[in-house]
């Protein structure tokens, strides 16, 4: 059985303070930048929130606080509070709000602000024997490290004092893998192919570092079918080590099928 207290901790630290990623495109200058922000995020000439995106202070048609994105119980909303209005997904609004979906574009004068897709990635470390070692949930723009603790490798939050063997950073949809300068290079493979670092892994990939393996999973998006032919139960991913019906060990070894619900 997996260490249940560890799995509970890994579930519990998934906080509600969700961050979103925005691409801000200035059509006038051609400048394009990506920013990770927490809610509420305000846009305007003189935005006030902790997550503020300042838009051309010399433009008269942009309000001091033109609008903001807020988190409601049923999702994200763009709220226009301007004198001249905004566009959301092509629709003009003024002193009104619209629900935002990933990929939607908010237009404020020459700016196009796109809500990028962002998922929490879950990493599950196992040894060659497939015994679970550690699990970690990574939000977009969070990092973690692989450390060698007296011969045993472990996944740790990036703020550890230990010298990391590898640095793993999530951009919300993929995992960037790099190695700190001066570190004795470990043998790193993705899906059993040797890679040169920095490299990227996607959900569904398996990273191997020496004889440890790290599964990259997309939190809440995938389910796995138990490989026990007598069972075939659909289990939630991640952090299900054993089938919740028959107890069959669910490993990245071909004993399960990963499915993405519609
Ligand atoms: Zn089962």
Q: How is the secondary structure organized here?
A:
Blueprint: H1 4-12, E1 19-26, E2 32-38, E3 41-44, E4 51-54, E5 67-72, E6 75-80, E7 86-88, E8 91-93, E9 97-100, E10 105-108, E11 111-116, E12 121-127, E13 132-138, E14 143-149, E15 152-157, E16 164-170, E17 175-178, E18 188-190, E19 193-194, E20 199-201, E21 206-209, E22 212-218, E23 223-226, E24 234-236, E25 256-259
Parallel strand pairs: 3-4
Antiparallel strand pairs: 1-2, 1-11, 3-5, 5-6, 6-9, 7-8, 7-10, 10-11, 12-13, 12-22, 14-15, 14-16, 16-17, 17-20, 18-19, 18-21, 21-22, 23-24, 23-25
Plain-language structure description:
The chain has 262 residues and is mainly beta. It has one helix and 25 strands. The chain has a six-stranded antiparallel sheet with strand order 2-1-11-10-7-8, with no helix packed on it. The structure holds zinc ion.
List keywords for this structure.
262 residues, Tumour Suppressor Smad4, 1 helix, 25 strands, six-stranded antiparallel β-sheet, 3% helix, disordered N terminus, mainly beta, 3 domains, binds zinc ion
